[in-house]
């Protein structure tokens, strides 16, 4: 999938959330994400498009990777990828939060590398809740290849049961 260089939005133009298939979202992530491949699967995929209908970014939501969070009441934003369009990440994280609430989840989580500021997450109303230990998932009985996902991460979350949550 080839993408044209990102065009700048005019100040009066807004991004809007559009549906997208997991297959197309995974291809977009593979083509544009800075350091990770597309996740193997997911439950929901969303995109943001400019007024001309061009997809400017995607988000994939799925089961939480951490076993302790995979209780059926939480969903994880497993990947967000954009073409660099301003506000695309914030729009995707905000939409993911609203969609998770409408689907009945109590919590939505995601992770960033510890060296990333999380500006888009803060703008979308998320809170940093934990720094993970990081490390490799390799075990002698189940060898794994090294990946970019091994380092220390910052977990972000939104409690969707809170009465303070309004949109």
Could you please describe the fold and organization of this structure?
The protein is an alpha+beta fold and 167 residues long. Helix content is 19%, strand content 28%. It has helices spanning 22-32, 88-102, 119-123; strands at 16-19, 44-49, 55-62, 74-82, 107-113, 127-131, 153-159. A 7-stranded mixed sheet has the order 1-2-3-4-5-7-6, with helices on both faces. Helix 2 links the parallel strand 4 (74-82) and strand 5 (107-113). The model has no long low-confidence stretch (mean pLDDT 85).
User: For the residues shown, what is the average pLDDT?
Assistant: 85
Order of helices and strands: EHEEEHEHEE
* Shape, principal axes of CA atoms: globular
Task: Tell me the number of strands.
Answer: 7
Structural class: alpha+beta
Q: Beta-strand level of the residues, as a percent range?
A: 25-35%
Count helical runs: 3
**What share of the residues lie within helices?**
10-25%
Q: What is the topology, as strand order, of the major beta sheet?
A: 1-2-3-4-5-7-6
Poorly predicted segments: none
The separation of the N and C termini measures 34 Å
User: How is the main sheet built?
Assistant: 7 strands, mixed
Radius of gyration: 16 Å
């Amino acid at each position: 999938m080839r993408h044209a260089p990102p065009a700048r939005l005019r100040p009066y133009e807004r991004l809007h959330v559009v549906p997208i298939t997991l297959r197309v979202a995974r291809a977009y992530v593979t083509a544009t994400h800075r350091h990770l491949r597309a996740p193997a699967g997911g439950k929901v995929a969303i995109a943001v498009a400019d007024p001309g209908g061009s997809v400017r970014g995607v988000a994939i939501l799925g089961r939480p990777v951490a076993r302790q969070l995979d209780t059926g009441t939480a969903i994880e934003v497993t990947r967000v990828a954009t073409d660099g369009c301003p506000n695309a990440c914030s729009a995707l994280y905000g939409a993911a939060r609203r969609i998770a609430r409408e689907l009945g989840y109590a919590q939505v989580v995601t992770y960033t590398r510890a060296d990333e500021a999380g500006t888009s997450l803060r703008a979308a109303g998320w809170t940093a809740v934990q720094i993970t230990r990081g490390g490799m998932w390799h075990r002698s009985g189940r060898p794994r290849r090294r990946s970019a996902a091994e380092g220390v991460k910052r977990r972000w979350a939104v409690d969707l049961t809170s009465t303070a949550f309004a949109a």
